[in-house]
């Protein structure tokens, strides 16, 4: 009985996140109606409050899901790029390019910071930082990168990719900004190379 109740609660949580993701992407955070959102999945506002506390908590869960998906996609692209240094550059560029995705733009890069505050403090960004730090440590160990503090380098690389994505999302012409942002990110990252490319 208790197990089924936990399963139902998790199902409801996932339904609310999926419905919110759709509503926030289509209407934006401020214009999304919580009554319409909960009704669309056959739940009440009570379920929303029980699972997320409030609309802001629901946005935090949606942002965490999308940002985590972005990181996983970028890591997969980095792995296909051969891993190592080239993989790290490909991963950063892929993350930046995702700023062209309307859902990512609106929810993660525009509404997220406006409602949730500094993205560098989000749990998903913290996880990204740890993965990048491990990659940096390996590259330093292999002599590919200069022997700098791995956390400092990871913070700068993650911050550069995130800020480039934020710039693209806020731009009046994201497609024009993208190549400039990727080129600058790669130039900045190359400063960490032990031997110039």
Automatic annotation (TrEMBL):
<dbReference type="InterPro" id="IPR001647">
    <property type="entry name" value="HTH_TetR"/>
</dbReference>
<dbReference type="InterPro" id="IPR050109">
    <property type="entry name" value="HTH-type_TetR-like_transc_reg"/>
</dbReference>
<protein>
    <submittedName>
        <fullName>TetR family transcriptional regulator</fullName>
    </submittedName>
</protein>
<dbReference type="InterPro" id="IPR009057">
    <property type="entry name" value="Homeodomain-like_sf"/>
</dbReference>
<dbReference type="GO" id="GO:0003700">
    <property type="term" value="F:DNA-binding transcription factor activity"/>
</dbReference>
<dbReference type="Pfam" id="PF00440">
    <property type="entry name" value="TetR_N"/>
</dbReference>
<dbReference type="InterPro" id="IPR049484">
    <property type="entry name" value="Rv0078-like_C"/>
</dbReference>
<dbReference type="GO" id="GO:0000976">
    <property type="term" value="F:transcription cis-regulatory region binding"/>
</dbReference>
<keyword id="KW-0238">DNA-binding</keyword>
<feature type="DNA-binding region" description="H-T-H motif">
    <location>
        <begin position="33"/>
        <end position="52"/>
    </location>
</feature>
<feature type="domain" description="HTH tetR-type">
    <location>
        <begin position="10"/>
        <end position="70"/>
    </location>
</feature>
<dbReference type="Pfam" id="PF21351">
    <property type="entry name" value="TetR_C_41"/>
</dbReference>
<dbReference type="InterPro" id="IPR036271">
    <property type="entry name" value="Tet_transcr_reg_TetR-rel_C_sf"/>
</dbReference>
């Amino acid at each position: 009985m208790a197990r089924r109740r936990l399963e139902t609660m998790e199902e409801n949580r996932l339904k609310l996140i999926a419905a919110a993701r759709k509503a926030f992407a289509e209407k934006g955070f401020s214009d999304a109606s919580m009554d319409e959102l909960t009704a669309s999945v056959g739940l009440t506002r009570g379920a929303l409050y029980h699972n997320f506390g409030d609309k802001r908590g629901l946005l935090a869960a949606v942002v965490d899901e999308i940002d985590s998906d972005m990181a996983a996609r970028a890591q997969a692209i980095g792995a296909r790029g051969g891993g190592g240094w080239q993989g790290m550059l490909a991963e950063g560029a892929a993350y930046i390019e995702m700023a062209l995705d309307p859902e990512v733009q609106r929810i993660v890069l525009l509404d997220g910071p406006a409602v949730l505050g500094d993205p560098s403090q989000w749990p998903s960004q913290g996880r990204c930082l740890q993965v990048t730090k491990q990659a940096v440590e390996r590259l330093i160990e292999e002599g590919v990168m200069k022997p700098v503090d791995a956390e400092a380098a990871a913070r700068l690389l993650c911050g550069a990719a995130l800020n480039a994505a934020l710039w693209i999302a806020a731009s009046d012409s994201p497609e024009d900004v993208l190549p400039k942002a990727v080129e600058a990110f790669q130039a900045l990252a190359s400063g960490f190379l032990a031997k110039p490319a």
